[in-house]
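Model: You mentioned two targets. I'll fold them one after the other.
Researcher: Yes, keep them separate.
Model: Target one:
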Amino acid sequence: MTDIIVVCIITGILVIGWGYIAYSKIDGEALRTMRYRMVERQIEARGIKNAWVLDAMRKVERHRFVPERYVSNAYDDNPLPIGEGQTISQPYIVALMTDLLKPKKDHKILEIGTGSGYQAAILAEIVKEVYTIEIVEKLGKRTGSLLQEMEYKNIHIRIGDGYRGWPEEAPFDGVIVTAAPDHIPQPLIDQLKVGGRMVIPVGKSYQELIVVTKDENGVRKDEVIPVRFVPMTGEAQKRE
């Protein structure tokens, strides 16, 4: 197991507005070139070969999901602030978590932590339906408007605490969690289909990215790499 810590949050960043190129000043073809280079150098080069994942990462315009002042940095392998104390994860982590989920075209996926909406958009390019929950109301409404503007008909967003999942839409073929609890919420395991997979960071200050698989014999948990995500809030914190 690698000992690399993949940082998925940024705090205390000083941003000087004129130091970034505005979205309107970057040619669309240049952004496309940056996006394709991101996939080649940051994702394929690090071992991700799933064609569906790579195609989705090439297609979805990450710069649409970040504040305008960060557009020129949208295809760097870094997380970026998106407001409300939240971040958009670095592209490699998004690709890795999607790959670990082993998504298929007929799958229904639950995402806990909508954030910017980028991860949901990547999934929506691959699977049949994405159900996503965001606890920060202001962020959830903004992201919902963006996804609607981008005409994602197969993404369903709810504002609320994701700890207990979305039981009325369960079971799910996969669950992906983009904020870290210090334990794996049992309701999310319960809402996985037999044969389903969950990808979740677990821990406090630093976490392990864990793949949970569910079969007729029970549940298996495999650690993948050390990571660092924002903590899961709401009921998850009350249960610590």
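Model: Target two:
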Amino acid sequence: MLRIIKNNYRYLLILLLFADITFSFIQHFHLPLEGDMACIIVPSDGYKQLMSDPLGLSALKGDIYPGTNRFFAHWTMATYYKITPFICQWVINPIDSIYLSNTIAKTGIQILIILLLSFYITRTWKVFSKDFLISAALITPLFQTFGFNAYIGIIDKSITYTFFYALPLTFLMIFFIPFYYASSQNRNINLNKWVITLLIPFIIFLSLNGPLIPAVVLIVCPLILLFRFRNNYLISNQRNRWRRIIESINGIDRIEIGFFVLFTLTSLYSIYVGRFNAENFNNIVPLVERYKLLINGIYIQFTHSAGSILLVLAIVINTTVIWFQKPTAETKRISKTLQWIIVLSLIYTILLPLGGYRAYRPYIIRWDSYMPVNLCLFYYYGLTSLYLINNIKPKLKLAYITGIAMFLLVFTIADKTNYYSSTCEKESLKVIANSPEKLVLINSDCSIMAWGKTTNPDDSKFNTQYLQYIGVLKDEKLYYQK
């Protein structure tokens, strides 16, 4: 049996990955809709100024309005949902086309992140190579749709949060590919002029794309440049301080310093413009109180979920085992990677309260705001696990692989699916679509494209406008629940 598995492990890994992704696809399809999507797609009156001002220039004049520095997150989501449901309607009815559009977006983003993390772990795009497949298999079960989603979730149950958090981080991982690859190969960055030309608008696109990117960039890019400068300064033979400083700066790759400085500046602009986001003023909590809440949030994040505890435990075990391995270039690289992750995660965590307070995120830290750190944990767990699978002593390999398999099995079992979570909502949408009334009373307690029950008919206005746009409704209607 072991020989059969050994000879066909690639096919087995591909089968497991396909099964897991298919399961995720089914899970995503059965999730209900939520209360922000129609307001963003239509858009609602509150977002009209944002959609007419991509760069947030009105905020420079002191205008306060929702989403000042998030135009491209809104634009990406609105564009997707004004096109994709019509394509889905070639094979499915208009109501289900919304759910299928959600499913395609979530599953596609999930696959992209798995591929990107596997690349960052293996530093190769040979997707059918042994290491790449193992990396993907190590990471994929960590993507929880239910289970541990509330603590280490990457693909949010809400499609809006997926577009505003997971998707921009996916784009950011794509941006860093050439810089990461060149650094891992100890060579200069080599980009043709077309890539360089495209990266400039891509930076602007990312800087005004959701709440996470500017914060992450303002930590990562300056720290990397400072690290490069420090290394160059220490090895410089110049005795004159100013010449040594100039030589150290000149020693940094020009492409890297150019793009990182530009990205830092555009992120600073985004942070400044974001200060005029009207949503920041809904719940004002003093900064000292936010830091007190953060302490509670950290405790909850790492103690209230078996998923977080197991992930950290796996990382600690892997790091300890590697510590006792014979030092090699790869173990030194892993050690430096851990140091970087610790520093970046600490800085990011300390700065989190500066982003303001949201009532739906009472302890500052939540799976969405902590997603950059969780992705780093996923990456480091995958990196160390792959190293040990390839390098641990033969007599311990079977025991280690068995332990990893049990670890992943826990995540797989924990991710239980509620196949009926959207049934009530779909039936309610059918009632609205088939009703001859202009004002439809829905006798159900489930949410209908909302965060809760819709008791005020006016709250359904943008939902029904979108439903009419994609052909679910033939004329204008409103609905409400008692």
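Researcher: Noted. Anything on target two?
Model: The first strand starts at residue 439 and ends at 442.
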